[in-house]
Amino acid sequence: MNLISIFRRLFLPLVVLLLAATAGAQSAYDEIKADIDKAGGVYFMYPFDTPSATPAPKGYEPFYISHYGRHGARYILSNDQYDNVAEVLRRARADGKLTARGIDACDRFLAIYPHLKGRAGDLTPKGQMQHRRLAGRMYAAYPEIFRRHPRIEAYSTVVPRCIMSMAAFCEGLKEADPSLEIFTETSSVNMYYLNPHSTGNPAGTAEDFRYKSADAPWRPEWRRFCEERIDVETILARLFTDTAYARSICDPLKFEQDLFSVAAHMQCTDLDESFYDLFTFDELCRFWECDNYTYYVEKGPDPRNRGRGTALAETLLDDIVSRAGEDMAAGEPSVRLRFGHDGCIMALLTLMRIDGWTTPVTDPAKIKDVWQVHRIPMASNMQFVFYRNKKNPDDVLVRVLLNEKELRLPLPGDLAPYYRWEDFRDFYAGIVREARLKLEATK
User: Fold this and answer.
1) pLDDT tens per residue, range 202-222
2) CA–CA separation, 64 and 69 (whole Å)
């Protein structure tokens, strides 16, 4: 055996492993550098890439889909953010306190402000497009299900952007096959599972709802963290000729975070404008990091929330598991669609013990290493696809996808990423029971 053969046999596998480890260790900042729009965090647009798919084991065919989708691209979350940026820049320009760069930013923002004002939280045209396109991709991916003209049921939260996302998705399915019949429903009676963190969930407490508010107990520490990470004064000096004046007319940190949110969400609109040029790359990453922090504390495995942000998602997980059993037993529907919010998917992934969503850290600076919100982009979705053995209808497998990419579950994996329905059902029914006990014990 020559030296080259020896190298290939002994060392090449080690090199491959090292390269894989290096790729897996890519930092969040590296990801953002590769695609600057990821700095937008939850405003990142769905990538519509083409993930590789593992063929179903021989003899199995898809017959049922259970789905949960985040609404599509939206405008900024609060009108106060638009109004604050407009008012501060307008006032400073009138008082002659803006730099040349600040004047340019002011003029550019005020030119588009009329198209943004009052639209906070609304679905954008891009958001509608996302869901029509996702519906077409689902139809094309599972023709075995849709060609049978299945009963399709769709449910959304009562939030308008979710209702419109549901409507756009259903339109996309009808575009693929006009003969499809789709039942849709929007009602407060479904809020307990479609948005487990809303007041519609009876398991939630006043403290849970306060935990998401501006006066949440973790907010002071979060603000200190942001003040340490963000060089507020440098950004002020970039836009204002007098930073003391700027501090007199606004809360500098809030103004800059609002301006960052404007920049982050421009990708969601049809407006041909960008405000990334107002920040350095490092600044964009740090604003992203502060925003990322909030979702980790509210919905993730942060020790301070005692697991409640995650445990509340048991209603959604229970609906997915129990409805699947009921629907399969009844023979319909064959497609169950749900439309809700990003934090619900984050909490569900943590509750399901999906790798990459479960690591608790106490150092806020390390949150970015274990949790990245741009992984739940606008129109993010989870699909639970069920496969039946053609020769034995009771032999059922489940495959779970996040944004059309296969997930590995903490279950026996002889067929992974396909899992036996009995294993899936029993394991996650147990997780639901554990979560309910936790919610009761931590009231």
Assistant:
1) 999 999 999 988 899 999 999
2) 16
